[in-house]
Specification:
637 residues; alpha/beta; 4-stranded antiparallel β-sheet; 21 helices
């Protein structure tokens, strides 16, 4: 399963996730967000006003009952109702505005977050994708983003409205009666303690829920990819059992999280009811005893204070209940944001190179100069500390000098590798699985950086070459082909986006793919989906070779490019590969020794060391490991 899930479980959630999320949204919408917050503020303040108007109406009725002047009272009540209706209209307008703006901000934020994540992932090193489950990575864009949607669009606005309502109502309470307000404060303190205790437990399980959802998605991605293998080996029952474990872990985390979260609302609701009763009892006692009223307003204690105060107590408890009701979504949203920020905090691939690849032309004296137009000559542009610039023709001379490498510190997998490949030479690597063949080619294109030693490309230390320019000069055909949704022509052109249709067709002919492409329903315009699921493995490999051919690089890397092709197709592909490799420096990794007999040099590797090197004839005469492999006395594993 994914290493990502395990690593995340061991990491603490970064402090200030909510603060960072709000800051991110504000960066996306520096104008719209304050306007939206203003509308929310207006809506929340107006929602707390009915208690004030009720107190005034009751006071008017009480005064009128004593004076008997009903004509004046009706005018005052009409004025109060007019103001109240006006306030509700303002609240309605503010509500409509903030909901519409919030919908725009929410979806815009999610789109920008997805874009930000995808852009950042393009800058991550290959090491990240080699050590993280792809289904787990997909969960960032689906489940984690969806939890943010619910939190930003619903929970945060509702919690803001509730917070403003609480503040407004509490101020009104203090204005009318400090003593009754203190009774409410005691209830709020109890509510806060209960909410913090419950949410601290639920948040732990909700974070685990997000991680196990990602784990489950990673598992499903593995199962879908390996469905044929499962069927072939009749492992359906084992797959079901493995899924039961993953699904059970997700169930336990989700159940525990919701178990704590779901008891919060009933607890707070009952505390609110008890608080209502206590306020009624205290208010009734003060009213009957004739005790003086301690308040900011200085009003005498009367029924016009007690009745609205009871309603405010209900409103106060209801606002706290609304907050608690949104805690689930907030906790899950913060858990999703936590995972997203962990992704965004991953260190991007570093590139300290300053040597670039440019178009060049050759002067009469043989020197190279940069040329803005496209030419058939490429050169390395090498600026120096003294301000001078030198141009070195791109030829494909690759040399290793005492190179050591480790994927994990202190665990060296390549030991003292020294080799050279002159322009146009073909160098082959032979050895058992794990010997270090692919690792060497990964160092040439700097998917990984060496621990010690030096690699020079056309005499330049590859650490000085910008990675994009270095990789632009290399072509690679992997054992596992990757085709993208699009036409056959578009997949071939992926190797060189500026290539014309004629160049793509020429590359397909060179690779031996033109014949089968023309037999497809729409030829070069045939749509491919699902990594070319409607093509055979051999046909997919031919397209990958054509894609590398259209790039026309001076250096080619063939990583067991014919391992998945049948013998008949291999003969066709081999002819195309020979044509493709002609005049290029080529590194070939192959299990079939028949494909490397014509190599200029064959390197036999074992446990990260070169144990034999030479031409096919030299190694046969040596009668060592290569000879045993060739004669069948020893087999590659």
């Amino acid at each position: 399963m994914s290493n990502n899930s395990n690593s995340m479980r061991g990491r603490k959630a970064p402090k200030g996730v909510l603060r960072r999320l709000i800051r991110t949204v504000f960066e996306f919408y520096p104008v719209l967000l304050p306007i939206t917050l203003g509308c929310i503020l207006v809506n929340a303040i107006v929602s707390s006003m009915p208690a004030v108007f009720m107190q005034n109406v009751i006071q008017v009725v009480d005064d009128t009952y004593k004076s008997g002047d009903w004509a004046t009272a009706s005018g005052r009540i009409f004025s109060l109702l007019t103001i109240l209706i006006t306030m509700y209209i303002i609240s309605l307008i503010a509500n409509v505005c903030y909901t519409q703006l919030m919908a725009y901000i929410t979806q815009g934020t999610l789109a920008k977050m997805r874009q930000k994540m995808f852009d950042h992932m393009q800058d991550l090193p290959i090491r990240y994708f080699d050590t993280h489950n792809h289904g787990d990575i997909m969960s960032f864009y689906t489940n984690d983003i969806d939890t943010l949607r619910q939190m930003i669009s619903q929970s945060l606005p509702q919690m803001m409205i509730s917070a403003v309502t609480l503040f407004s109502v509490f101020c009104i309470m203090m204005y009318y009666s400090i003593l009754l307000a203190l009774v409410v404060v005691c209830g709020v303190i109890l509510m806060t303690f209960v909410a913090r205790y419950v949410s601290s437990h639920s948040s732990k399980y909700f974070l685990r829920q997000q991680i196990t959802i990602a784990k489950a998605e990673g598992f499903m991605e593995e199962m879908m990819t390996g469905q044929k293998v499962i069927k072939v080996f009749c492992h359906e029952d084992g797959a079901k059992a493995d899924f039961d474990k993953v699904n059970g872990e997700l169930f336990e985390n989700a159940r525990n999280g919701n178990r704590f979260a779901n008891i919060l609302m009933p607890l707070l609701g009952n505390i609110g009811n008890v608080m209502y009763v206590i306020v009624a009892l205290v208010g009734g006692y003060l009213l009957l005893s004739g005790a003086p009223n301690v308040s900011i307003s200085g009003m005498a204690f009367s029924i016009s204070i007690v009745v609205p105060f009871l309603n405010m107590t209900k409103q106060f408890a209801g606002a706290i209940g609304q907050v608690s009701n949104q805690i689930n979504m907030v906790i899950m949203g913060l858990a999703g944001a936590h995972r997203i920020f962990l992704l965004l905090d991953e260190e991007p691939e570093t590139d300290e190179g300053y040597v670039t690849l440019v178009n060049a032309r050759e002067e009469e004296d043989g020197t190279l100069v940069e040329c803005p137009e496209r030419t058939n000559v490429w050169a390395w542009k090498h600026p120096h500390h003294d301000g001078t610039v030198t141009y070195t023709r791109l030829e494909g001379d690759v040399r290793f000098f005492d190179v050591d490498f480790a994927y994990v510190p202190d665990k060296i997998v390549l030991h003292n590798i020294s080799l050279y490949a002159k322009p146009g030479q073909k160098v082959a690597f032979v050895g058992s699985t794990g010997a270090g063949k692919t690792t060497i080619t990964n160092l040439i294109n700097r998917f990984y950086d060496i621990a010690d030693g030096k690699i020079r490309y056309d005499g330049i230390n590859i650490n000085k070459i910008k990675k994009a320019d270095l990789r632009h000069s290399l072509g690679i055909v992997l054992q596992d082909t990757n085709l993208f949704t699009g036409t056959v022509m578009e997949n071939i052109r992926y190797g060189n986006l500026n290539a014309s249709d004629e160049e793509c067709i020429g590359a397909a002919r060179l690779a031996g793919a033109d014949d089968f492409i023309r037999r497809l329903p729409d030829g070069y315009n045939t749509m491919l989906t699902g990594n070319g699921a409607n093509l055979s493995q051999g046909q997919r490999q031919l397209l990958a070779i054509a894609r590398a051919a259209v790039a026309d690089p001076p250096v080619m890397i063939m990583d067991e490019a014919t391992s998945s092709i049948d013998t008949h197709t291999e003969a066709i592909v081999q002819r195309g590969m020979d044509a493709l490799m002609r005049g290029r420096t080529t590194f070939v990794i192959a299990h079939r020794l028949s494909t490397v007999q014509n190599a200029d040099a064959i390197m036999v590797l074992d446990h990260g060391r070169i144990i034999e090197r030479g031409t096919h004839e030299d190694l046969i005469k040596l009668k060592g490991t290569y000879y045993q492999l060739y004669t069948g006395a020893l087999e590659l594993d």
